[in-house]
Amino acid sequence: MQVWLGCPADSLGLTLRVLAGALAAQLLLGLTLAWVLARKRFPGRALLDALVSLPLVFPPIVIGYLLLLALGRQGWLAGLTGWSPEVVFQPTALVIAAFIAGLPLMVKPVQNGLQAMSPRLKEAAATLGHGSWSHFLRVELPLLRPALATGLILSGGRALGEVGISLMLGGNIAGRTETLSLSIYNAVLDGDTGCANALSWLLGVMALGCFLALRRYGNHT
Predict the structure, then answer these.
(1) pTM of the complete model
(2) pLDDT tens across 49-105, in order?
(3) CA 179 → CA 1, 11, 26, 136, distances in Å?
(4) Which position has the higher pLDDT, 40 or 47?
């Protein structure tokens, strides 16, 4: 294991890969969920909305435990389908943890942005020959840029600081599933304040970058 500033160097690269994977999932799945919640009315919509918002109020360690029960080799998913995804205690588990933790911070700004749009926009687009997809891509999506930026920045910042879900689902394995946040946790447990301080400063700078990006590109309305 390489050492950087007296700390494991692998954790920085792993954190950046997890962040990239989580943001890609937010852009695809988070945007889709926001659109469904904003535009569709169906049985169970309130339950889906509540589940999306759950990470805001539910203890992360409990969410991680529930995901562990669901995705483990002998978990609920394996019991129902006979298929057990090989994600627990793998880097993929960290991406899932970061995605789940940041999901409400992605969905809610975009959902609110979609709901704030006037229905007349769609009517005007229809008169110009735009179908549903064309209207979304050429009218709604450009108008959603501040809300999308807000969601991606906030969910990315949450992903950087994720510990509870990652600890349960990823296992905190040195050199394999140890992110920057978990490295700080481990350094504190080991009494290595030098490493904990260095990594805390690094995460602090990254968080400051998120704040400045939010001020510049986010939705301030």
Answers:
(1) 0.86
(2) 999 999 999 999 999 999 988 888 777 776 677 667 788 889 999 999 999 999 999
(3) 14, 5, 19, 37
(4) 47
| Beta-carbon-side half-sphere exposure of residue 2 (alpha carbons within 13 Å) | 7
Contacts of 207 (CB under 8 A, 6+ apart): 157, 160, 161
Q: Measured between alpha carbons, how far is 30 from 110 in angstroms, rounded to an integer? A: 9
Residue 74: DSSP 8-state: T
pLDDT on residue 99 = 96
Domains of the chain, with CATH numbers? 3-217 (1.10.3720.10)
Per-residue confidence (pLDDT) for residue 98, from 0 to 100: 95
Pick from 162, 163, 161, 155: nearest CA to 213:
155
In whole angstroms, what separates CA 16 from the centre of its chain? 13
State the first-to-last Cα distance of the chain, in angstroms, to the nearest integer: 47
Q: Which two tokens stand for residue 179?
A: 């992110």
The CA distance from 58 to 100, in Å, is 12
Q: How far is CA 72 from CA 78, 83, 90, 112, 139, in A?
A: 8, 10, 11, 35, 42
